[in-house]
Design goal:
Belongs to the bacterial solute-binding protein 5 family. It is found in: Cell membrane. It contains six helices and eight strands; from the N terminus they run E-H-E-H-E-E-E-E-H-H-E-E-H-H. It is of the alpha+beta class. The strands form three sheets. It has a four-stranded antiparallel β-sheet with strand order 5-6-8-7, covered by helices on one side. A two-stranded antiparallel ribbon has the order 1-2. The radius of gyration is 21 Å and the shape is globular.
């Protein structure tokens, strides 16, 4: 069980605007406010604090399904796609739109070179392979398994019929990952923007095992 209340802080690049009061005329007021704003130096650390009203079950997206945990996961992490200001999915840590095979079964993504984890590690293709294999592994008993069923062999692996290495996800190299589907899935790119498809730092998560995601110290974000 996690701490009773979590407060997650996310570093954001924000600008500070100083509003002042003046007894002078409107022109002087605008002038003084403009001077104050232009001379203001933002604090070295830019922090926004979000309070979550519910207790978190886990920040391991392979096993988390409660709304409180998902709110934190989706605010602190980014997948290949993310939700944009207009509510539609847009590119996240994907450098560009994927190369899709003519039969619609293969999607190859390039991960942004500047995509990093909060501990400084780069986000790699192996992070996706590790996480998705973890979710479909029957030993995980993931409540989110059905969302990965479009991936080739996902259901058979979860039923214990195939090894998780047979899952339709492959690290071509450090920054290129390929997904192979069992059948064409028109909404697959939308699925990639959901919490179930968020990657995990495979080195950290594999080292921590079941302790991963149990508190903020045992979790890394991207």
């Amino acid at each position: 069980m996690l701490k009773d209340k979590w407060v997650i802080t996310t570093t954001l690049a924000i600008s500070l605007v100083l509003a002042g009061c003046s007894t002078g005329d409107a022109a002087n007021t605008e002038s003084s406010e403009g001077a104050a704003a232009s001379s203001a130096t933002p604090a070295a650390e830019q922090v926004i604090t979000i309070t979550n009203t519910g207790e978190l079950a886990s920040l391991d997206n392979a096993i988390s399904a409660d709304n409180s945990s998902l709110v934190v996961l989706e605010n602190a992490n980014e997948g290949l796609y993310r939700v944009g200001d207009d509510g539609a999915f847009e590119l996240g840590i994907a450098a560009e739109e994927p190369v899709v095979s003519e039969d619609g079964l293969e999607y190859t993504f390039k991960i942004r070179e500047d995509a990093n984890w909060s501990n400084g590690d780069p986000v790699t293709a192996q992070d996706f392979v590790y996480t998705y294999q973890k979710i479909v592994d029957p030993a995980t008993a993931s409540p989110n398994i059905n969302k990965l069923y479009p991936l080739k062999n996902a259901e058979a692996i979860n039923n214990g019929e195939l090894d998780k290495a047979e899952l339709g996800v492959e690290a071509i190299d450090e920054k290129n990952v390929k997904f192979t589907l069992g059948n064409p899935t028109a909404y697959f790119k939308d699925l990639l923007g959901t919490s179930s498809y968020l990657p995990q730092n495979h080195q950290v998560a594999s080292e921590l095992g079941s302790a991963y995601g149990t508190n903020s110290e045992n979790t890394v974000y991207n």
